[in-house]
Amino acid sequence: MCGIIGVTGRPSAVDDILAGLRRLEYRGYDSSGVVAVLEDGLGVVKRSGKLDRLDAALATAPLAAATGIGHTRWATHGAPTDANAHPHLDPAGRVAVVHNGIIENYRALRDDLAGAAFTSDTDTEVVAHLVARELDGPDGVDLLEAVRRVSGRLEGAYALCVVSADEPDTIVVARRQAPLIVAAVDGVGLCASDVAALIEHTDTCAALLDGQLARIRPDGYTVVDADGTAAAADEFTVDWDLSSAEKQGYEHFMLKEIHEQPVAVAETLLGRDDGAGNVTLDELRIDPSELARIDKVFILAAGTSLHAGMAGKLAIEHWAGVPVEVEVASEFRYRDPIVTDRTLVIAISQSGETTDTIAAAEHARAQGAPVIAISNVVGSTLARAADGVLYTRAGPEIAVASTKAFTTQIVACLVLALHLAQRKERLFASEARDVLDRLDTLPALVQRVVADDTAVLAAAERFKDVGYTMFIGRHGGLPIAYEGALKLKEVSYLHAEAFPAGEMKHGPIALIEPGSLVVAVAHDGHVFAKMVSNIQEVRARGASVLAVATASSRDALAEHADVVLTVPDAPHELAAPLLTVLPLQLYAYHVAVLRGADVDQPRNLAKTVTVE
Ligand code: F6R
Predict the structure, then answer these.
(1) Which CATH superfamily is domain 452-594 in?
(2) Fewer beta carbons within 10 angstroms: which end of the chain, N or C?
(3) 588: burial class by Cβ within 10 Å (0-12, 13-18, 19+)?
């Protein structure tokens, strides 16, 4: 979750580090810090709070050095204080470490260092102590070897970045279950937890694999495996540029990303058939006959990606005729899921770095299930670990609240459902082509919705102070009810919960009283009439109703709802969620802005959850 960057070989490495941290701030933003390797030792500045505080501190006490590392934190161990901010140093101030992840055995390691004085509550500080001890040891090892030896003693997940005053132009990084990339360009060595931090320097990076370490110097980097033997760097090219990672005139990344959805959806749909009507994935390392045998699908994901999976389930069951279970990734591996080599696991993750989702996918794979990843990040850990990948080509998603990732994940699920249906010989090429042609109309429809948010803004102004909002839906409206509630609570901090509309009478309707607000997702289709009944039930008990309708359901809803937000009819009922979610993304955004909330960096959250 934390962001890491290291730079060596620039006249003012700290400026580059700060610029990189700005791009990584979405990974965590409760404190930040830098260490620069100065001529007379290490210079450290760190501050609790947003990056601006670090920036201000560095403006008054600049650190001029060619080598340094920086960190933006999402606290796991220890409150977000100055003392707990990274970097952490050994007692002599000779070794500095920044870390993303959790060192699970840090207490035992601390106990082994009996008598050592610790200045923070973090799990990270122990690493600096241990590396310093290795450097001081009888073998006279260098920094890479010292970090390698210490890594072997660590349990848990980590991306570590280490500098030492003894090797002024060297940065050493180590990775286990947390992303780390390295790069070298024109006499500058770089490393970061995310390409966003390096994109202004280069589009060619290498991802470290689990257990690997790298030594980075201005003239390049070397990668070694956990046993110290040299390894080939796994290079890849980043296919987006700096402008995609900037706000481009929008007030917030969330709004910018909502508006990027027409293009993101179009890109994700691009070239999905081979010209003969066969639906294709981006990478497939599974024999097609294996997919034909699939008799069960698990969709594993977290948060917004899970909601996209719920919409995906409907499509897979409809077209491919295979039973699908959608499960929170963090639950899956701690029970005894029945998985065979005929079970397909679809792991959905925007970042491709969510620990729970990766671990759940690996758990299923170990039991013989093929895994297909839906990810937005080329070369992400999940994408690499899977047997097949379908990329959502949404471009970098910076806002913590996910929007364009969600709609493109639904597109990916629809495409994958068609692919599976073809492998199972349930869909002729001409039928798949027909569905894809219809889906190709989606970008223009999405554009129509996001281009005019007047009605949504008016609704946000009217309901912005309602403390509890209940979202309801059925069939394709249900994932959107869940997603609408999640968006609202994330960015506005208002209490919001979603329920299947049919469940209301089994309990939740007891919460309804005059003044309650119910958001009902009611697109036209086979459950529409039932939604209208559910809306009438809550309205009869005094709730205000904000309905999301499609053009064909609008008139029938008008007399039952206080406000109706209308989107165009979807080209296929299974694609309706992709449109009905849009007003709810905009609604959450406007409510948050009206309430003065920090839209792009909501409290307590981080974009990529790389801890359990
Ligand atoms: C919500 C949100 C999160 C993520 C979740 C999974 O707006 O962004 O709920 O969807 O943390 O992240 P990924 O998709 O990267 O695995």
Answers:
(1) Glucose-6-phosphate isomerase like protein; domain 1 (3.40.50.10490)
(2) C
(3) buried
Distance, in Å, from the CA atom of 474 to the CA atom of 472, rounded to the nearest integer, reads 7
Which of 487, 609, 611 to mutate to test ligand 1, by most ligand atoms within 8 A of the CB atom?
Answer: 609
How remote is the CA of residue 106 from the centroid of ligand 1, in Å?
Answer: 28
Q: Is the CB of 14 under 6 A from ligand 1?
A: no
pLDDT > 70: what percent of the chain? 100
Other Cβ atoms within 10 Å of 127 Cβ, number = 28
Q: How would residue 316 be classed by pLDDT, with cut points 50, 70 and 90?
A: very high
Is residue 1 lining ligand 1, measured as CB closer than 6 Å? no
Backbone region of residue 179 per phi and psi (left: phi > 0; alpha: psi in -120 to 50; beta: other values): beta
Domains 3-238 and 253-449 share a fold: no
Write the DSSP string, 212-256: -EEEEETTEEEEE-TTS-EE--EEEE----GGGGS-TT-SSHHHH
Q: Which CATH superfamily is domain 3-238 in?
A: Aminohydrolase, N-terminal nucleophile (Ntn) domain (3.60.20.10)
Burial class (CB in 10 A: 0-12, 13-18, 19+), 537: middle
Q: Is the pLDDT reported for residue 266 higher than 90?
A: yes
CA–centroid distance, 516 to ligand 1, in Å, is 28
Query: 585, 602 in Cβ contact below 8 A?
Result: no
Ligand 1 atom nearest the C-alpha of 382 is 16
Identify the pLDDT of residue 502.
95
Mean pLDDT of 420-440: 94
Please give the pLDDT value at position 79: 84
Q: What is the pLDDT of residues 145-162, one digit of tens each?
A: 999 999 999 998 899 999
Give pLDDT, residue 205. Answer: 93
The pTM score is 0.84
Distance 406 CA to ligand 1 centre (A): 9
Write down the architecture of domain 253-449 according to CATH: 3-Layer(aba) Sandwich (3.40)
**Could you list the active site residues?**
2, 607
Structure token digits, residue 596: 């003065």
To 5 degrees, how large is the angle CA 574–CA 575–CA 580? 115
Angle between helices 125-136 and 143-151 (to 10 degrees): 130
What residue spans define the domains of the chain? 3-238, 253-449, 452-594
Q: Is the pLDDT of residue 240 over 80?
A: no
Strand partners, 192: 5, 181
CA of 403 to the centre of ligand 1 (A): 10
**Does the C-beta of 354 come closer than 6 Å to ligand 1?**
yes
